[in-house]
């Protein structure tokens, strides 16, 4: 049996617990990339995914699967799940014009609507297994520098210290980031934070098999500069 922590839909817990909900209703599916997450990190991942997708869905209901619920199985209390509306998608790349139009519209519609015009998010989210510190920041420079530092910490944890990278890192934080980002919010200039997916790559954007509309999912949302989604797209 499943224990629903939070839900956007009426879900029969007995049906969900039997793990036939997706097959029977064809309305929801367990996100296979997230099922099996366990422990405190698993709980944080599923909760973060639910909140992230719920926020993104609010601005793009035709292109984001509607979150249904997140929770844990009562017979496996250390295992957590996330469930959302089902879309039959192809494995092709989305139409680039449609895809860019959807992302741009999310940015435009959400711009200036973050709490107190701050950068961050109301809950911890994850890029794969890497947790993001989404604590609210007053400037884009502050948020970006902290997020960059978090990725470097994971790099060092995985591969050990690197002297050359350490030298480059010092220059990035002392010179590059301040020189590039600080002018965006000084001298009378300002940025209106908008909602960012932050993990837009071909694995998280697929065409709807019927309408060919781009379906965007598996977000790691935060409120930030509208170009905050570019690195993932360029990397892909």
- CA-to-CA gap between the ends? 39 Å
- Give the tally of β-strands: 11
Name the poorly predicted regions.
10-35, 232-236
Mean pLDDT: 84
SSE arrangement, N to C: EHHEEHEEHEEHHEEEEH
Strand content: 15-25%
Kindly state the percentage of residues in helix: 25-40%
Query: What is the makeup of the main sheet?
Result: 5 strands, antiparallel
Radius of gyration: 19 Å
Shape: globular
Helix run count: 7
Derived structural class: alpha+beta
Structure description:
The structure is a single chain. This protein is of the alpha+beta class and 236 residues long. The chain is 39% helix and 19% strand. It has 7 helices and 11 strands. Strands 1, 2, 3, 4 and 5 form a 5-stranded antiparallel sheet that branches. Strands 6-7 form a two-stranded antiparallel sheet. A hairpin with a 6-residue loop joins strand 9 and strand 10. The chain is globular, with a radius of gyration of 19 Å. The termini are far apart. The relative contact order is 0.16. The model is unreliable at 10-35 and 232-236 (pLDDT under 50).
Q: What would the keywords be for this entry?
A:
236 residues; alpha+beta; five-stranded antiparallel sheet; two-stranded antiparallel sheet; 7 helices; 39% helix; 19% strand; disordered C terminus
Break the fold down into its secondary structure elements and pairings.
Elements: E1 2-7, H1 13-17, H2 21-25, E2 28-30, E3 37-38, H3 39-59, E4 67-73, E5 76-85, H4 96-110, E6 125-127, E7 130-132, H5 140-159, H6 163-181, E8 194-196, E9 205-207, E10 214-216, E11 222-224, H7 230-235
């Amino acid at each position: 049996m499943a224990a629903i922590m939070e839900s956007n839909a009426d879900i029969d817990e007995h049906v969900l617990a039997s793990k036939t909900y997706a097959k029977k209703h064809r309305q929801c599916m367990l996100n296979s990339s997230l099922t099996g997450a366990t422990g405190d990190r698993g709980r944080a991942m599923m909760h973060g995914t639910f909140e992230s997708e719920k926020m993104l869905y609010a601005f793009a209901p035709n292109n984001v699967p509607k979150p249904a619920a997140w929770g844990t199985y009562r017979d496996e209390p250390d295992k957590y799940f996330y469930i959302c509306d089902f879309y039959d998608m192809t494995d092709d790349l989305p139409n680039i014009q449609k895809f860019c139009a959807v992302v741009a519209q999310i940015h435009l519609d959400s711009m200036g609507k973050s709490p107190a015009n701050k950068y961050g998010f109301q809950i911890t989210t994850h890029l794969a297994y890497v947790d993001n510190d989404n604590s609210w920041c007053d400037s884009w420079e502050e948020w970006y520098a902290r997020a960059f530092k978090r990725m470097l910490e994971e790099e060092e944890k995985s591969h050990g210290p690197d002297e050359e990278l350490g030298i480059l890192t010092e220059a990035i934080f002392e010179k590059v980031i301040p020189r590039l980002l600080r002018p965006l919010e000084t001298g009378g200039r300002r940025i209106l934070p908008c909602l960012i997916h932050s993990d837009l790559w071909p694995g998280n954007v697929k065409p709807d098999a019927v309408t060919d509309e781009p379906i965007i999912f598996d977000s790691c949302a935060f409120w930030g500069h509208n170009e905050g989604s570019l690195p993932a797209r360029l990397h892909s």
